Amino acid sequence: MRNSFYWKMAADSIRKNWKMYFPFIISCISTIMMTYIIQALSTNPGLSEIPGGENLKTILSMGYFVLILFSTIFLFYMNSFLMKNRKREFGVYNILGMDKKHIMKMLAFETFYIAVCSMIIGLIAGTILNKVCVLLIRQMMGADVALGFEFSSEAVVWTLSFFIIIFLLILLGNISQIRLANPIDLLKSGNVGEQEPKTKWVLSIVGVLLTGWGYYIALTLQSPISGMPYAFLSAVLIIAGTYLLFTTGSIAVLKILKNNKKYYYQTSHFIPVSGMLYRMKKNAVGLGNITVLSVGVILLLSIAVSLYIVSGNKEADSQYAGNVISEVRLPEDADETGEEIKAKLRELIDQTASETNNTVTDVSSYTYLNLVTLAADDGFEVTKDAYSMLAKQSPASLYLTDQESYNQLTSDNVSLDENEVYVHGTDDEYTKDTLSLMDFQFSVNVMEDMEEFSLDNETTSLISDTYYIIVEDIETLRQIEQQQKEIVEDYAASTNVSTQISLEQGADEQQEIEFGEQLRSHMEQEGMEIVVVDSRTEAASDLQALRSGVLFIVLNLAVLLLLMTVLIIYYKQTSEAYDDKERFSILQKIGLNQSEIKKAIKSQILTVFFLPVIVTGIHILAIFLLMRKLMILVMINQVNLFPISVLIAFLVFLIVYVIIYRITARVYYKIVH
Amino acid sequence: MTLLQVQHVMKVYTTRFGGNQVEALSDVSFSVDSGDYIAIMGESGSGKTTLLNILAALDKPTRGSVLLNRKNIVQIPEKEISAFRRNNLGFVFQDFNLLDTFSIQDNIFVPLVLSGKKHKEMEQKLKPIAEKLGIEHILTKFPYEISGGQKQRAAVARALIADPELVLADEPTGALDSKSSDDLLQHFDYINAEGQTILMVTHSIKAASHAKRVLFIKDGNIFHELYKGEMSNEEMFQKISNTLAILAAGEDGNA
């Protein structure tokens, strides 16, 4: 046969199967578009110029791999639906005398058409959207908005090569399926009688238990950040439980309904219950998929909404009281009190100020030691276990400072005797009279209004219990440091001198950054052990970049997952409609009228549709606390807005879901009718 | 007593793109008495199926009327037609039309469930019918687990369960092997002997030879009619084949 014949045939068969092909092409276009945008953004030279842009690019390129992975799985899944519905057609061709070789050739041409179309449209749409995204990101990060045509040839090459590989793999998969099947199998595939599934009580109970266990972990986990493996375990348990519950639990429930003769033998229950039971085996995995995807969509959307809320509120971010902060580690030598270093720092700050034409209005330094411990009966225990990811008990974070530093920092005038400490807990106050810490025994004075001097106080206090402790003098502090070094060795914390420098009002961002850089180079020259030198501007734009990067990827993934959910539902409903067509025509012949058919269809679709939504809602409720704890990382002190984000995300999801329901119900009815 | 009266039924199909009109039935009249067993024969395209669809209220005639118990089923409004079909007619199809989603018992129950009957009543009705048709042992099985003959007997049970006035059978032996066919026809004979009116459309001379009366349709008209009377099945068989030969030859014959 001539090639032109294949061209025509391939084009014809796409046109004829448009109902099936359309969603597939849409998924191709959108995955190509999204991968292109992410890739183009991560190589965009303009982004490196704005503060924090480099961070953003790193995050984007990580997201790129996730996206490619998802796209591949997704397109394969969509293709399997497509092939299932087309096998019969291939069987007819085969019997009419088309060789398998010819069919494969036709498939190859079809794939070629789809690949070329979706790549062209995907790249054009991607280029346009890419521009929009760049503008959005620039605006979010507060950089100047420059208009111009953005086209990344590098991204085009990468995206095209990835998708050519994906399309080739799909084609190879299809060809091998055809090659292995005989024509009669092809003809019959699609209407293989499925046996009524058996009830598996044990597995149903296991499903309930797994889900319950996952919920339990999610609800009781104290710190998802240090207990990351547990959070992960919880997710795996819930997902496994969901699939088990859908595959075995739903069958068990339907069987119970069926065995209740009074309920079952009623017009409105008879047809839907038997219909669902009949194909629950196939159905259940689909419902499980939809549920897991829906949970994913809602979580990602809620993160995106949270990030959006937070990024609109720049002022609340500033963790720094001063314009520039520096932190220096004290030398190991236990006799070192830090006075020298503090004095030297003053000098350097003054020098930097005069060099950069800034006026320093305030400098405050303090010495502190941050220990991670486990709460014990009579105080705190310093142990390596506190650093373990699998620790049963969530760690307590101690910020220790000496009274001189504290008085300097706050202009208070506290005075302590030997072996006496002031303690302040951020969540709960310390209740005991004595505090033992390794070999030290202190008598405790609670000080509720103590200044929480740690720089990232808002974050840490939300993640773990935090206590601020003032000890008598720097020597005590250094002794504590020495002793914990012996116990926890590699994890040991050091005593640092933290300095906040406030510049004269009116110093702009540029001056701030310049001051910070200059100070850093001076400190390096002096051989100081620098922990950090940072300006408020830099910190803020780093954070902003992190947020907009995460927001962007999260939103992208959310859209991709949502698209997957929608298309899976669409394919599932249409392929089921073809299965049900005959069933309903028989029922009609026996004496079921149109409105009864409509009612039966409605009740069946309604269950199939809203069962996953209900389960999704329950899952979300169960993991909400865990998510909230994780979101502290991004939302910091605005985490109380998280429930609103979840609510918005759920609503958005629900609206899309209901629209899909209406569309597919109509398509279903049209096919069956 | 006359159960069914078909009066001057005509059916004209218009092809989808207008223009051509095809006359499937031109002028068909006959009547069926209560307890009758009628076979309608004819070649493909003679209008058999169209006639059956009209009798089953699945299709409306272009002209003419169909009276079942003196009620014109042509005029029954769309809303009530399904209920009417359920309560007055029983169907047996060539390809059984059992639902794979239901067990045999549930398949037989379908008309009763649709009519909103109580489960207890269904069980009571099922028992004698299942016994009569010899399907008690397969009631819990599914259609894909049993043989064609068993399926068709299950379909007959479904047709009988609602005590219909008239059982309509469309090529009931069409998909069965000869042994299952004989068996099914035997059951039809018993059922008819108990007073059930049966109207069957068939190609099979053997099937038709079991009927009390055979109508021959050709080109949309009733062409001939045979009464079995006291004849044996074999004699009837011979007579039907002769008639068909004449029918095929296109001559007007008087048997």
UniProtKB/TrEMBL annotation, chain A:
Membrane topology: Multi-pass membrane protein
Record domain ABC3 transporter permease C-terminal: where: 64-179, 558-670
Subcellular location: Cell membrane
Predominant location category: membrane
Protein name as it appears in the record: ABC transporter permease
Matching InterPro entries: ABC-4_Integral_Memb_Prot, ABC3_permease_C, ABC_permease_BceB-typ
Residue ranges of the TM segments: 21-39, 59-78, 111-137, 157-180, 201-218, 230-254, 284-310, 550-571, 605-627, 639-660
Organism: Oceanobacillus neutriphilus
Superkingdom of source: Bacteria
Family statement: Belongs to the ABC-4 integral membrane protein family.
Keywords assigned by UniProt, alphabetized: Cell membrane, Membrane, Transmembrane, Transmembrane helix, Transport
TrEMBL record, chain B:
UniProt keyword terms in alphabetical order: ATP-binding, Nucleotide-binding, Transport
CDD domains: ABC_MJ0796_LolCDE_FtsE
InterPro entries: AAA+_ATPase, ABC_transporter-like_ATP-bd, ABC_transporter-like_CS, MacB-like_ATP-bd, P-loop_NTPase
Spans traversing the lipid bilayer: none
SUPFAM superfamilies per the UniProt record, alphabetical: P-loop containing nucleoside triphosphate hydrolases (SSF52540)
PROSITE patterns per UniProt: ABC_TRANSPORTER_1, ABC_TRANSPORTER_2
Family: Belongs to the ABC transporter superfamily.
Residues in ABC transporter domain copies: 4-244
Protein name, entry field: ABC transporter ATP-binding protein
Coiled coil: none
Record-linked Gene3D superfamilies: P-loop containing nucleotide triphosphate hydrolases (3.40.50.300)
MF GO annotations: ATP binding
Pfam families for the chain: ABC_tran
